Amino acid sequence: MNDIQNELAAEFSELAVQIIGINESGFESGNHNIIDEGHTLPWLQDVDLDADQNSDYWSAWNVTYRDVVIVDGTNWPVAVFNVTDRSLQETANYEAFKQLLVDTARGACRSDARACELASSASCP
């Protein structure tokens, strides 16, 4: 993810795309591994404020492990790209994911229930 973030900043700086990690509630003990390994992306910790034993954002967005939720300019989820199902080690997936971020930042993928105009096969609500 660091590589994609750096490429987007260099190639599409005008789009101001920002990748942020959100850790699931209950898995806080691994946070130091992410931070200590030299990752430069912002890393946030989800919480369980309603004490229902579920992460608040993970539950609200129906996130599964290794989902990347892409949000539009209003922070509304518009697409999901799972990096387990579509490993970024494969060039085609890497490029599709990067293009999805660019398309969303340019407004091609919308949160208003209109069809996403994407070349990739990511899922859009």
Task: Give an overview in words.
The chain is α+β, with helices and mostly antiparallel strands. It has one domain. The protein contains four helices and four strands; from the N terminus they run H-E-H-E-H-E-E-H. The protein has helices at residues 2-11, 31-36, 56-60, 91-105; strands at residues 21-23, 43-45, 67-71, 77-82. A two-stranded parallel sheet has the order 1-2. Helix 2 (31-36) links the parallel strand 1 (21-23) and strand 2 (43-45). The longest helix has 15 residues, at 91-105. The chain is globular and about 40 Å long. The two termini are 23 Å apart. Mean pLDDT is 82; it is low at 113-125.
Rounded to an integer, what's the Rg over CA atoms?
15 Å
Strand segment tally = 4
Quote the distance from N terminus to C terminus. 23 Å
- Give the overall average pLDDT: 82
Strand content: 5-15%
Strand adjacency order, main sheet: 1-2
Biggest sheet descriptor: 2 strands, parallel
Low-confidence stretches: 113-125
